[in-house]
Amino acid sequence: MIAYVKGTVEDITEDNAVVDVGGIGYNVRISADTAARLPGIGERVKLYTYTSVREDAIQLFGFLSKNDLDIFKKCITVSGIGPKGGLAILSVLDADSLRFAILSGDVKAITKAPGIGARTAERLILELKGKIKVEDTAIGMEIQGAQAAGAAAMDSPQKREAVEALVSLGYGQAEAAKAVNAIEGIEAMDSGAVLKAALKKMF
Asked: What pTM was estimated for this model as a whole?
């Protein structure tokens, strides 16, 4: 099968890219997140691909990194989540955020994907939690009490208190931790300032 396509970007839509490889244009299905991160039309790109073969169609699904492709392949092993479902999930959560959501059991974050209900999200978490390691993600397992071997508490009380406050306001653990971790200069801020900064990143 095709491991990757490397060529010139000819066209980009929210869910598809056309890549010219030696004069042949390949239609590659992509997530909205990948579409947003692709280089511009006329520029070079390398997409790692998964080939879906069905009776009525052969489709390529493409990703900018092996990390993205790896979590996509894991997702489509779950009953009820096909390649389109996998792309839908990776359109609302990047690979690291999805791993974090699975490890922390954050159903709410996963159900933000179109067509993915609570039962499917719960099944995804149940089936993949044992196949994902904390060290697989750059975000890391930083929510205190998260159920994963080797999970570590967040590295400052300001972070912990801000995440707890965001969760109490109804935000998911994964999105709360991601927002807090994205704040710069957090060491010089008190918990209230961290919470305000995180809330700004939520909107």
From this structure: 0.67
